[in-house]
Amino acid sequence: MKILMITPYFPYPLVSGGQIRTYNLLKNLSSKHEITLASFIRDPKETQYLDKLKPFCQKIIVFKRRKAWSPVNILLSAVTPYPFLVSIYFDPFVKSQIKKELIRENYDLIHAETFYVMPNIPKTNVPVFLVEQVIEYLVYQRFVEGLTPLLLLLKPFLFLDVFKIKFWERHYWQKARRLAAMSAQDQKFIQNYNPKLTVDVVANGVDIDYFAQTKRKKLQKPTVLFIGNFKWLPNRDATKYLVEDIWPLINKELRNCQLWIVGRNPPPDIKKYQSQDIKVDGRVKDIRSAYTSSSVLLAPIRNGRGTKYKILEAMATKTPIIGTRLAIEGIDAKNNNQVYIADNPKDLAQKTVNILKNPAIGRKLAESAYSLVSHAYNWQIISAKLDRLYQEVGSPK
């Protein structure tokens, strides 16, 4: 099939969850389909990575995205029905180029990764397969609800933007021929809104062979790991929650342990947590070494749906996992079997301390989790499911 895949980011380097997902799907689907990739880039320097994707793509088209806080985006979100998130990506020039591409080539399917690229798709008879990595308006809604009192004056304006996101996200759910969510929970949420919508689950995956190459290190002291892309608001919230509410309880029980916070370009409000027993590290070259140099992964996520790559990667490296119910959402892992699940600071701390004091318990959890991720969440299996959906939704000529 001839497929036009539109993404709001260029899927290389493999930094964000979205980049990892798209890269691996392209890699695994390229032998079965002719895929044209149309991606937004934030910086012209990103074109240096074109050669990384060329083996998997028939053609690559890139569009320079306006800077998020450009006057154009602010004006669009203020005077049009579009929310700020959509304004960042909506571009009449991009829409005209996609229209020309659809006229020039006989595509069987358009794969839209995230709803906020959808305004750039012109009216067409080519079926659109929309993938929702998260339900965006819920993420932003939780963020606005949690604003500090100092920002209360902004709340009415931000809630208006959340309302716009909600409206347009639901609007494009109904415009697509078919939808895919990352988890059964998101699938159910969308179908509860409109039972007529066809929603499939295409979970995230992990490159098992790549992560299994790195062997575990012998540690000087027990190390609790947190990993997150700090551009994603839920990771900032989770870091604050971990350092301020959970870590003091762990440190009270085990004075000789350390917390390692890993993520590219940590902002000042994350860097401030650096201390004698807390290391904030934005320069880990090989993320595998972070997992294999830690005793346990702690993921106290309170916001943001979908499948979390940090959980799958920890499973693939046999790193024991403690997380909230939301952190494990989308992964068929059982509490006390493959992971420990807890939803309050006291229980999260107790379960972490239990593994740090009893490494054999952690090893047992990790082995069971590795078996699960190997059989259910490798990219070959995920890509095969997406391929079947392409065949059902597309219209091969």
TrEMBL record:
A single MF term (Gene Ontology): glycosyltransferase activity
Per the UniProt entry, the signal peptide is none
Q: GO biological process: what's one of them?
A: lipopolysaccharide biosynthetic process
Write one Pfam family the protein is assigned to: Glyco_trans_1_4
What Gene3D superfamilies does the annotation carry?
Glycogen Phosphorylase B
Q: Which UniProt keywords apply?
A: Membrane, Transferase, Transmembrane, Transmembrane helix
Q: Residue limits of the Glycosyltransferase subfamily 4-like N-terminal domain?
A: 16-209
Establish whether keyword Chloroplast is in the entry. no
Segments crossing the lipid bilayer = 68-90
Protein name per the record: Glycosyltransferase subfamily 4-like N-terminal domain-containing protein
Identify the CDD domains for this entry: GT4_PimA-like
